[in-house]
Amino acid sequence: MPKSVDSDDAEDRLRRIEAITDTTLGELDVEELLHQLLERVRSILRADTATVLLLDRDGRHLVATASSGIEEEVRQGFRIGVGEGFAGKIAATRQALTIDQVDSTTVINPLLWRKGIRSLAGVPLITGGELLGVLHVGAVKRVGFTDQDLHLLRLAADRVALSTHAKLTRVEKAAASALQRSLLPARLPDVPGLELAARYAPGDGGDISGDWYDVFTLPSGWLCVAIGDVVGRGLAAATVMSRLRTATRAYALESRDPSEVLTKLDRHIRTFEPDTMATIAYAMWEPTLRRMHISLAGHLSPVVAPPQGPPAPADVPVDPPVGYGSGALRRRTTIIDVPLETLVLFYTDGLVERRNRSLSEGLALLADCFSGETADELCSAVLAGLLGSERNEDDVAVLAIRARELPVLDFEIDAVPQSLAEVRAALRRWLPSAGADENEVGELLVVVGEACANAIEHAYGPVGGTVRIRLERRAPDVLVTVSDEGTWREPRGRNRGKGTELMRKLADDLRFEHTAKGTTAHIRRRLAARAEESGGPSGALPRTGSGVSASGVASQDAAPPEVTSSEPLSDATGEHGRKTLPITGSDHSPTTPESEALS
Questions:
Q1: pLDDT band at 214 (very low <50, low <70, confident <90, very high)
Q2: Cβ of 43: how many Cβ atoms within 10 Å?
Q3: Lesser CB count within 10 Å: N end or C end of the chain?
């Protein structure tokens, strides 16, 4: 056994331990901080090696995070189960341990005996009653560590644990905050005729929570809204939030039924995040923006304020949160009519729940705070009214939506084939409000889509450009212009011009205006319902000779219900690279959103 240190030496070593975490270490990252601390521990205890193993996130393994004197342990990513080997036993018992025999019978990591280490002393790293990891030191030339050595090692471990925990907490908060900021939409979708506004207010508790929201459109023209709250706080909750958001978007592409999306999300959570639970409100707006399909998984119902009526929570049944229970549960979808100018507010529970008042009182206050002419003003009003200047421990997310009358649809797209889906989605939303029935919507989708595809193909070269689309209601007609600023190239290949022929058969009037500044396609289509309202004859043309009936589907004696052209019609590709476009305008067929995107 080594000689005991004298009192002067012990006091000197204690003073050095007390100064082990000076302020010069504050700016280092976790690994560098630990490396510097371990260098000091080695010096104070006259050890040859010093290593910190931190507990991983699931609490089942220790991972070599920093080392001095045996750096390979970190470089090789050594990990050991809690309860196994020397360090694992210290973590399991939370007791100090020393050994004077280092071989395969006492330790698991072969690096320790290959380096010639003869003695080991280790202590748990504990702060606030929480096990953080294990600190151990090793000696090559000396045999055994004294009780005084263990006392000094415990003191050093206390300071290492405190500094490491503080640093890890700061790093985790920063990572969680950065992750949450990156996942919240930086910019809400620009949907013509729709007001969208959102706010996220972090709580005063310090930790990031799992509150999130998302708004996105599908190629079919449907608008999707999700808002939720993951149980828990910190980086773990933010990480689960990111996975939920991604999974929700993926399942939204597969189903137009919100309850089915949440059922799949519930299965996802119970399979891959078994210890997680979250509340979610998921809603889908039909392309007309007049009806909302919604399903609630343990989440508060949105508040709906019609143009001529008081705000009130939507009458929607609340199903269990995702991740709740051990098996799949029945979930329900509710369809709600949403007239134009109706304000719909989604929010997380931190907006209305307080320890000193009931939920019903919070909801009543929320209704009283409904004010403002726009969705943005509503978000500001409810946050000012319910949060004000008081301290709030929980994070809050709010999202306001309002569909407005849009007599004119005017927007611009990039001149690339992928933009044609955006055109179809916009037309599906706007044309029904202009009075077009399903057949007329389908036929106008073909006409306008063909005009846009022609501009994309002929007006610009590889450099690209933009195409502007404008639709206006002028009863009983819809007037459309599709404009570009390019120089049209001569048609390439044989048998061209069939797309223009189809456009003429589906429109009441079609003409092209070529100028030095570009080309504009002028389209006029008379709507049957509008013509009847105005007392004039319907301008719908008989679709003879084209294989397409007035209903937008193939006649019995015509070719199959698919138009094929060597000119670009849509982003759906048929055989031999030609573009194919089924003629349909229905938004109520039992298809999935991505299959409908091809219509």
A1: very high
A2: 14
A3: N
CA distance 599 to 585: 7
Beta bridge partners of 472: 408, 479
The encoded tokens of residue 380 equal 């500001």
Closest to 84 measured CA to CA, from 72, 93, 76: 93
Length of the chain: 599
Token pair for residue 332? 């329900």
> For the residues of 200-268, what is the DSSP string, one character each?
EE--TTSS-EEEEEEEEE-TTS-EEEEEEEEEEEHHHHHHHHHHHHHHHHHHHTT-S-HHHHHHHHHHH
How many CA within 13 A on the CB side of residue 88?
14
Contact 401, 289 (CB under 8 A): no
Contacts of 95 (CB under 8 A, 6+ apart): 124
523, 448 in Cβ contact below 8 A?
yes
- Provide the Cα torsion 169, 175, 176, 182; round to 10°: 170
Query: H or E stretch including 345?
Result: strand 343-347
Name residue 580's amino acid.
T
- The Cα 585–Cα 256 span in angstroms is 17
Residues ≥6 apart with Cβ < 8 Å to 444: 427, 431, 436, 478, 480, 506, 525, 585
Higher pLDDT residue, 288 or 559? 288
Q: Distance (Å, rounded) from C-alpha 236 to C-alpha 199?
A: 22
- Where residue 147 falls among pLDDT bands split at 50, 70, 90? confident
- Tell me the pairing of strands 291-297 and 318-319: parallel
Whether the bond into 476 is cis, omega within 30 of 0: yes
- Point out the least confidently predicted range of 231-240, 409-418, 491-500, 524-533: 491-500
Closest CA to 278 of 315, 330, 226, 314: 226
How far apart are alpha carbons 218 and 249 in whole angstroms?
9
What pLDDT is attached to residue 568?
33
Residues 6+ apart with CB under 8 A from 30: 65, 164, 167, 168, 171
Distance CA 590, CA 247 (A): 22
- How far is CA 331 from its chain centroid? 22
Mapped onto helix, strand or coil, the DSSP state of residue 312 is strand
Planar angle of CA 531, 535, 540, nearest 5 degrees:
30
Tokens of 423: 């055109």
Q: pTM of the entire structure?
A: 0.65
pLDDT at 38: 85
> pLDDT-derived band of residue 208, with 50, 70 and 90 as boundaries?
low
- Mapped onto helix, strand or coil, the DSSP state of residue 452 is helix
CA distance 199 to 379: 7
